[in-house]
Amino acid sequence: MESAVELGRLAIERWYRAALDAVDPEAAVTAFLSRDDLSLIIGAERVPAPGRLAVVAVGKAALPMARAAARACGDLVSAGIVLTKDGHAVGAVPDGFEVFEASHPIPDERGVAATRKILDLVAGMGPGDVVLALISGGGSALLEAPRPPLTLSDMAETTAALLKAGAPIQHLNAVRTPLSLVKGGGLRAAAPAARFVTLVLSDVLSNDPRVIASGPTIPAALDAGAALSLLEQYRVDGSVPAVVVEVLALLDGKSPAAPATAGDVLAFAGDNDLAVKAMAAAAAAEGMSTRIAWRRREGEASDLGRRWIELALAQDEPVAALFGGGEATVTVRGGGQGGRNTEFALAAALELDRIGDEEWLAASLATDGQDALTGVAGAIVDGGTVARASAAGTDPAAALAENDSLAVFRAAGGIVAPGPTGTNVNDLYVALRIG
User: Fold this and answer.
1) What is the pLDDT of residues 218-254, one digit of tens each?
2) What is the pLDDT of residue 259?
3) Which of 1, 46, 101, 348 is most buried per CB count within 10 Å?
């Protein structure tokens, strides 16, 4: 007979899968996009496409979004390019589409080469033509064209320094945008006469389209001064390549205003809130009393993990399951292996152990199935996680200090590893009462 802990873990994994189903890229695009003769229909918006229709899909969910678009638009599509993360080009490729994989979260030359192809494609679009841009998380690293004289190495070093310093995605993108020719509306500027339709699967908690994939189709003033301030704030202005600071200083105060783009359409196919609601609904359908406690939560992963347990223990008896969404950051101080979700989960496990609680399970899970470079989505913990890890020869408290959370879960169990899920709408948090 399965224990309460085992049954609880199975329940959390079921609810996690329900959340992923709700933000499945193919289903989400299908729900928003259709055609009528020579027009695209996006929600309630009709966009005539009497000329050519080019589909550009960028991000971790790019290929399934492109499949749905190709199915919905049929022979309206004249050409299509997909640029996605390594390992995410899974499944059928629509006829007439080219697919490219590149590195994430640190950009590489494959991404730059694919970006050139995308720029070449849209540059040929004119009046009467439409570019359908399908944007999902991960696009900032994948779609890249460094602003001369910057090199890809300069961009990669800057990205790595900010990630190590714990910068959240919106700050990371605020620095990268003025350094790039495609971010901040740069892709849009490559085809000024065409009309752009942008359909987004959001991995940004605010749903700010300027931040998601650094807004390649959303014209914005490039704030080089703000980028310089962020480098100073995270104390990396002396460690990033000197040319990065020089370029930003030259651009400071000279960034052009965002051009008008009348007629463009922007729509959101899915986001973190949708996934959290689906998770809670799945639990409620099983008869659980539920509460959505956190929305769009940010902060240091270890702090959030402890606070999540404090919140769970403060619940009135009728509440059996808590749900939340957000995306934590990790300030790297050690040399271990882990990500924001496993670090959150380890901090939660240590708090359960400190209090001596055996009534609650807790989980932190990435919707893309890839918690940083761990290869896992995150972990589910219980009151015995720390004891099991210790018995296996691992020191959980020391592991947290060394950012080595993955080692604890390899020793104690609790890892959730679905592989790449094909979607990306930030992270999901669960606390389940089993006592």
Assistant:
1) 988 778 999 999 999 999 999 999 999 999 999 987 6
2) 55
3) 348
Cβ distance 134 to 94 under 8 Å?
no
Residue 292 clears pLDDT 70, i.e. is over it: yes
pTM: 0.80
The CATH number of residue 128's host domain is: 3.40.50.10180
pLDDT at 44: 87
Q: In this structure, what token pair is assigned to residue 221?
A: 């003033």
**What is the residue range of 423's domain?**
4-18+273-433
Q: Which of 214, 239, 270 is the last residue of a domain?
A: 270
* DSSP assignment string, 149-168: T--HHHHHHHHHHHHHTT--
CA–CA distances in Å: residue 164 to residues 38, 158, 340: 48, 10, 12
Could you tell me if 101 and 89 are in contact, meaning their C-beta atoms sit under 8 angstroms apart?
A: yes
Cα-Cα-Cα-Cα dihedral sign, residues 149, 153, 154, 156: positive
Domain end (from 226, 251, 270): 270
Mention every residue, 6+ apart, whose C-beta is less than 8 A from residue 395: none
Residue 266 token pair: 């922007």
Contact indicator for 331, 399 with CB cutoff of 8 Å: no
In whole angstroms, what is the distance from residue 245 CA to residue 338 CA?
30
| Overall number of domains in the chain | 2
Residue 106 is classified by DSSP as S
Identify the helix (H) or strand (E) that includes residue 306. Answer: helix 301-313
What's residue 138's pLDDT? 87
> Using 50, 70 and 90 to split pLDDT, how confident is the model at 273?
very high
CB contact set of 319 (below 8 Å; sequence gap of 6+): 289, 290, 291, 433
pLDDT band at 1 (very low <50, low <70, confident <90, very high): low
- Please tell me what DSSP assigns to residue 256: P
pLDDT at 255: 58
- Judge if 141 and 169 occupy the same domain: yes
Residue 23 within any structural domain of the chain = no
Q: Please indicate, yes or no, if residue 302 is contained in any of the structural domains.
A: yes
